[in-house]
Amino acid sequence: MLKGKKILLGITGSIAAYKVISLARELVKKGADVRVVMTPSALSFVTPLTLATITKNPVHSAYIADELTGEWSNHVELGKWADLMVIAPLSANTLAKLVTGECDNLLLAVVLSLSCPLVVAPAMDLDMSDHWTTVGNLKILKDKGVNVLDFDEGELASGLVGKGRMKEPEYILEIVDEFFDLKSNLKGKKLLITAGPTYEAIDPVRFIGNHSLGKMGFAIAAEAVERGAEVVLISGPTQLETPSNLERINITSAAEMFKAVEEHYDSCDSLIMSAAVADYRPAVVAENKLKKEKDSLQSIQMEPTQDILLNCGKNKKRQVLIGFALETENELENAKKKLSNKNLDLLVLNSLRDEGAGFGTDTNRVTFVFPDRTQQNDLKTKHDVAKDILDELEKLV
Ligand SMILES: Cc1cc2nc3c(=O)[nH]c(=O)nc-3n(C[C@H](O)[C@H](O)[C@H](O)COP(=O)(O)O)c2cc1C
Fold first, then answer.
1. Taking burial as the number of CB atoms within 10 A of a residue's CB, which of 122, 130, 147, 265 is the most buried?
2. Do residue 160 and residue 195 come from a single domain?
3. How far is the CA of 37 from the centre of ligand 1 (A)?
4. Residue to mutate, 93, 94, 97, 120, ligand 1, most ligand atoms under 8 Å from C-beta
5. What is the CA(322)–ligand 1 centre distance, in A?
6. Of all atoms in ligand 1, which is nearest to the CA of residue 12?
7. pLDDT tens digits for 188-200?
8. Of all residues in the chain, what percent are helix, strand and coil, respectively (each to 5)?
9. Is the domain of 71 the same as that of 126?
10. Domains in the chain: how many in total?
């Protein structure tokens, strides 16, 4: 269930650090990609070698990994990479620093750069856990939205008995499982996602197509699977590899795309139409290859293709409809018209005038157009744009 989940495991200087070796092992066994960040004090309790071997990733404990080569650990990159950070054990010292925003080691810098939720499992001796600073600091973290696990009671390393033990790895594992399980309300929802171009035949050899490679739609499909959705991906011609755990249907023309969408539309909870479907196709497809006989080819008569989104908008029942628009001028005005004409819940607008947006690139800069508001987003990787789109879908379904 944790397959592909990116988990940062922070370890601080507490005797309970030895238990985190088994936590790391279980997370990896469940398919998570685990990276470990340790405070310098934690190095006295468990070795990076053990954790690097278990996680199959280098362990980060210092800003500068190698003075001679200048190799350094990028705290910002780590903070942005993770889907979830777990600090276990959390020492009284690091707890206090988290509250004040101190940043004198790599782990603290990573936390300040985090863009994902944080779970902490404090561990300390009896009097430390009861101290008013600890009690106050834990409350501040909770109030700020950090998931603070309670202390366990029992025998402590000092020999004293009482509150202060770190929650057992099995318990922390359950919390992590629950986090990813509950995270998405797309779990079990059926999503129909279209991607790529369509090719409209002129003759048996030639076609009219467009530059779409399907990257945006494939990124959405992969992310939707991650969130537990049942995905049917209807794809135009593309070289992209099929993301795992979904049903892929290959089509070539707009008419085939229309038919495939129609077949699955009634049973889906949402349609995300990111494919670049042709608006027109040759009215007549030549039976044989057109010969090069004249100086210029006679004109090709075109006829409109069926409008898939318009049709789905008309027949909308419970489905959430998300459309895409690639515009080159009057972007927002055209997008708003499309949103209302086609009865969409969200239109994802990208403009070819924006550098890094549109076809072929790995990045995109989109504006979300809702019936009642618009929201302009930064230039991001298509993977991150896919996450943003599905975050919006989660609110809509
Ligand atoms: C054997 C030993 C066990 C310790 N256990 C704990 C502990 O469970 N909880 C805690 O808050 N501090 C504990 N400490 C103290 C911390 O290691 C110390 O405060 C350190 O500065 C924490 O640094 P860090 O928060 O940067 O990892 C322990 C120290 C030693 C020597």
1. 122
2. no
3. 16
4. 93
5. 51
6. 27
7. 999 999 999 999 9
8. 35, 25, 40
9. yes
10. 2
